[in-house]
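Hi R.,

Quick one: here's the Phosphoribosylamine--glycine ligase sequence you asked about.
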Amino acid sequence: MAVDVLLVGSGGREHALAWKLKRSPRLGKLYIAPGNGGTRLVGENVAIGVMDFDKLLRFAEEKRIGLTVCSMDDPLAGGIVDYFKRRGLRIWGPTKAAAQIESSKAFAKNLMHEMKIPTAEFQVFTDYERALLYVRQKGAPIVVKASALALGKGVYVCQTLAEAESALKELMVDKILKDAGSEVVIEEYLEGPEVSMHALSDGLNFLMFPPSQDHKRALDGDKGKNTGGMGTITPVPWLSAEASVLVEQEIVRPTLGALAARGTPFTGLLYPGLKVTVGGPRVLEFNARFGDPEAEVYMRLLKTDLLDLLEACVDGALGNQKLEWYAGHAACIMLASGGYPEAYERGFPISGVEDAEKTENVVVFHAGTVFEQGRLLTAGGRVLGVSATGITLKAALEHAYEAIKSISFQGMQYRRDIGAEVLKYYSAVRI
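And here's the predicted structure, written out as tokens:
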């Protein structure tokens, strides 16, 4: 029987999920609220904001939606899942209590401390003067984080004491992230590469995705401010099978177990962002939904029907599912507005997307776009995610960067070194 789906969101992640859902033979109608300039090509956009729970619920009831899917941090933190469940509607995603694993870094760090889950040494502060004293005692390098949600912009990796002091002032005094910086987590700096792990969960059972690697800094060479992510690759060859097992057994399993023991079982997608140190994987942060742009590469390689997986999570039947993947590699390069992740302008015409998708193995996912009066315009910091697959990572990256040559909008910026370190790894291995 066909299932009508309502997908809540408007970013590149949502376009990727919609693109994959569209390929399910069981999908009926697909609605995206509010969607963007690209999601209109795979479903029907609905002009309802992600935090307007009343309107979303009424729409789901009126359209007899079989499954609502939410993979956005704000509505999950706001309790959209609880809201729908109280009315007996089927919805995929964690409850408000379970989503605290992302919406409060202080909650997550305290849970990790309690469960002895490997992470960086930390302290939590709500008082600016005490936080300032602590960083002066600890010295640099050190990491300062806004505890609450901040669209990926609340993490400051400080190489000097002056940078740490400036970060605290921006967050706690200047309030550049508003209330998100009222509580901060200060933690030790960890050496090592970052890796993203994803685990689908039905509250009891879980399935692990292969590792991926996001590139958070705005500029080439991992310079500039942190962003929501400027590009991703999967799989990650340098993460050993043994390390992946450690992540599953020492991080994912105890975290899900701890949430279940609290009476708040986690249903949805648990995404620990990790540093792989000489002492093993350490958790930098938890997310309660698919990463963005990680979703853009996972959806390109996922062979299993996504609708089957999401419904199995909701029905507590994930133990009957298995993940199958297409062979090869996937890469996604984010095209961002000039000035991102700081101030940027919107409303610039975008050209060349259709030409870009004529490149071999390329799909362009829309993130910050809008289609108005017959024109595709920029409408966000991260505008487009140019994704590509290939038998090798080198081939996938070549396809993506070749496609980018066709796309243009005023101020367009992107990193030209996505996956470069992994390419060096492959080169070294061959030698």
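The radius of gyration is 21 Å.

Cheers,
M.
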